[in-house]
Amino acid sequence: MPPTLTHQALADLVGGRLLQGEPDGEINGINSLADAQAGEVSFLGNPKYASLTQTTKASAILVAPGFSEVLPGKALIQVANPTLAFDRAVKHFGPPERLLAPGVHPTSVVAENAQFDRTKVHVGPHAVIEDDVVIGDGSVIHAGAFIGLGSRLGSSCVIHANAVIKERCILGNRVIIHSCSVIGTDGFGYQTVNGQHLKMDQVGIVHIEDDVEIGSCTTIDRARFGRTLVGSGTKIDNLVQLGHNVSTGRGCIIVSQTGISGSTQLGDYVVMGGQVGVAGHLKIGNQVTFHAKSGVTKDTPTAGAYTGFPARPLIEGRRMLMYPSRVPDLTRRIQDLEKKLAELEQRLA
């Protein structure tokens, strides 16, 4: 069990200021506002949940500057960013970090000419590392992972169980690939000739730059030629597909069930909500945000928020999304007008 913290010690740990409560009160765990019990700390990171501060059983709450309510019996700790500060509490009270010792498990299959320091890399059970693979120090290859011919992994990468890195792909430093994702599968490229779909060779690579994290069951296709690129610091959710020759800029956020068609280029800090669909060969500018379920059908060079299908600037897009809900009422009004018009025509006749 992690050691308990006093309210003041907790404030010091998260870099905050104790606004209210006894400095010597004790905290022994973490929880959400809805589920917290006495002795636990929670946080208000989203104003949507502000009403829960009145009913929560948490003994301490991390709040943002400007929070002015008085909550009897609670310790209130002011921090610049409650969500970020709460992560420090999670590290203290949560389960200990799992540390895997360097070494190669005897059931793994490692090519003789694979290049890595076995005293500085962990290779788990039944992992497969093919010829000419290079792996940087501090990397972890979990059970059942596959690293294909000639791939390059930087330092401190984590390849989770059953993830696949296919041949000749390049990963930078501190890249995380979660379970069952496939990096470097063939792009979806065919030409139809005499009624048959002929497969086009896909001979490029996938290049993932530093500090990228990719969720489970995501697929990133290798380029037909050249490279599919994921820019540094980009974070990709579960169940995402990037087609062949897609490139993302730095710091992009791509959320679950988004699909980006081939050869589309994203600028820096592009955000795509869940189930966004993007057509191929488009150019998306820096700091563009597409809300969930947007359909992107044309170049979008201007920073800002967009929504709808086809995606439009946010206010216009929301207005267009609202119109279908008005159809039943408009239909009734038209029917009433038609009835009144028929009655008027009868009188005039």
What does this structure look like?
By secondary structure, this protein is of the alpha/beta class. The chain folds into two domains: 5-93, Udp-n-acetylmuramoylalanyl-d-glutamate--2,6- Diaminopimelate Ligase, Chain: A, domain 1; 103-313, 3 Solenoid (UDP N-Acetylglucosamine Acyltransferase, domain 1). It is 16% helix and 28% strand. It has a twelve-stranded mixed sheet with strand order 8-10-13-16-19-24-27-29-32-35-37-38, covered by helices on one side. Strand 21 (190-193) and strand 22 (196-199) form a beta hairpin. The protein is flat, with a radius of gyration of 27 Å. The model has no long low-confidence stretch (mean pLDDT 96).
* Number of self-contained structural domains: 2
CATH 2nd-level architecture of the largest domain = 3 Solenoid
Give the number of DSSP strands. 38
Determine the structural class based on helices, strands and strand pairing. alpha/beta
The N- and C-terminal alpha carbons lie at a distance of 91 Å
For the report, how would you describe the main beta sheet? 12 strands, mixed
Mean pLDDT score: 96
Strand order of the largest sheet: 8-10-13-16-19-24-27-29-32-35-37-38
Q: What name does CATH use for the topology of the largest domain?
A: UDP N-Acetylglucosamine Acyltransferase, domain 1
Question: By CATH's scheme, which homologous superfamily of the largest domain applies?
Answer: Hexapeptide repeat proteins
Strand content: 25-35%
